[in-house]
Design a protein that fits this description.
It is built from 9 helices and 26 strands. By secondary structure, the protein is of the alpha+beta class. Helix 4 runs antiparallel to helix 5.
Length: 444
């Protein structure tokens, strides 16, 4: 490397011949070096020496013949070099040597010439391996250190019931009351400022997270609502009805659109992709319909047991499917649907239980359970990380806050929605408060 950067072209070529390169690589590398030697001689107006280099060193290599012809034209008329784009590179000492090194790096084996920034790449890869091996990893990469091996603890996973105040300080919780029937669904708004909740065959309520107030109640005369979700832009909501239809409302409750399913049964779960082009819904007991609204094309996911619910990943590439047999399946829905992973451990014998993606890069799977706990798994390994007690009835649904890696919500048959966050008492020795209750008994 020193010979090249110092412009010792003859020594550089001699070294190439001693390091066991294949004939093809040796000739190509020699050409790069000798071409630079030729151009520097021309720049110094040593035309005779440049001609000798071309005739006796470059031509015998029998490579890059078109380039050789262009170099020859520079002997006749040095101004030709500019027109042909040959002399545009730096030909001064270290600059020219550095450019040749960059080109040689692409030719020579890594065992002979270590790639540029190789150490940086190795360090980054080592951090990647540590991050991938850490099943509790749920923090920004800026927190990773080279001084010690990385290992997050369970305190990076939401495990404490909390309340969100106006100043963003995490203290305890809201208890949102008003549903007359068991709460089946809770869903965060895209900007995490509001929550939707849906009672069994009842109504949908929209809540303000900071105050705990009920902002609106959505219902349809003579029809029960059994599933709900947000528009990707947060400006409206969609809902599945007991009459097999799917309806869209703006935030003020005005009807926007409604579809009556042709192949659907009772729509226990549904989703819309971020671009609004695909609707995903359970179309029969053991199948999910992937419908392209524009192309009118659909595909099916066939499951091994009755489907009770599903959840769409943030990147719209994966589906999390809850089954009657107490299993949760992860499907890739890019191209032909493919089963990726399975999660087990939660309890489900009678009720619809819902799960969700969450955390950094959606690396975790969370689910409700009939034993009144919230279960959290590591998405890639399938390892069960935590089972969180707190509710006094079956936990029907969980939703991980998209704007806060360390916060999720859970809805239960005990009639409450709990907001979970980090256990700051154990982390900082802070004091807990008594929290607050909020009622929502009518339309706002």
């Amino acid at each position: 490397m020193g010979q090249v950067t110092n412009g010792k072209w003859d020594d550089s070529v001699a070294t190439l011949r001693t390091i066991g390169l294949s004939d093809e690589i040796m000739k190509s590398a020699s050409f790069l070096i000798l071409e630079q030697k030729f151009l520097e001689l021309l720049k110094m107006e040593k035309v005779g020496a440049a001609l000798d280099t071309l005739r006796n060193e470059i031509v015998p290599l029998h490579v890059n013949l078109d380039r050789v012809h262009k170099l020859a034209s520079c002997i006749i008329s040095p101004s030709q070099c500019i027109r042909l784009g040959i002399s545009g590179q730096d030909t001064e000492g270290t600059k020219s040597g550095s450019k040749i090194l960059e080109k040689l790096q692409k030719l020579l084996p890594a065992a002979i010439m270590i790639p540029e920034k190789r150490l940086e790449h190795l360090v980054e890869r080592a951090l990647d391996v540590q991050r991938e091996a850490c099943v509790f990893h749920n923090t920004s990469d800026s927190d990773l250190s080279l001084y010690s091996d990385h290992q997050c603890g369970k305190n990076q996973i939401p495990s404490q019931t909390l309340q969100v105040k106006d100043n963003g300080q995490v203290l305890l919780k809201h208890t949102l009351c008003g549903h007359q029937k068991p709460v089946l669904i809770v869903s965060w708004s895209p900007d995490d400022s509001q929550i939707l909740t849906c009672g069994q065959d009842e109504v949908i309520r929209r809540w303000d997270v900071s105050s705990g107030e009920c902002l609106h109640v959505y219902e349809k005369t003579g029809v029960g609502l059994i599933s709900c979700g947000w528009f990707p832009d947060g400006r409206g909501i969609f809902a599945g009805m007991t009459d097999k239809s799917i309806c869209l409302w703006d935030l003020d409750g005005r009807d926007l659109e409604c579809w009556k399913g042709q192949r659907t049964l009772r729509i226990s779960d549904m989703a819309i992709t971020d671009d609004g082009k695909r609707i995903i819904s359970v179309c029969r007991e053991s199948a999910i319909l992937l419908l392209d609204r524009e192309a009118k094309f659909d595909r099916l996911i066939e499951e091994v047991d009755m489907i009770t619910s599903f959840s769409l990943s943030k990147d719209n590439k994966f589906l999390l499917v809850n089954l009657m047999n107490q299993e949760i399946h992860l499907w890739s829905i890019e191209g032909d649907p493919k089963l990726i992973s399975e999660y087990k451990g939660h309890k489900r014998t009678r009720f619809v239980i819902r799960s969700c993606f969450g955390g950094l890069d959606q690396s975790f799977i969370a689910s409700g359970s009939e034993d009144s706990q919230v279960y959290i798994w590591h998405r890639c390994s399938g390892e069960l990380l935590l089972a969180l007690p707190g509710h006094s009835g079956a936990v029907n649904c969980v939703s991980w806050n998209p704007g806060n890696l360390h916060m999720l919500a859970s809805a239960s048959d005990d009639g409450t929605i709990r907001i979970w966050g980090l256990d700051r008492f154990n982390l900082k020795g802070g004091e807990q408060s008594n929290g607050s209750n909020h009622q929502c008994n009518g339309r706002s």
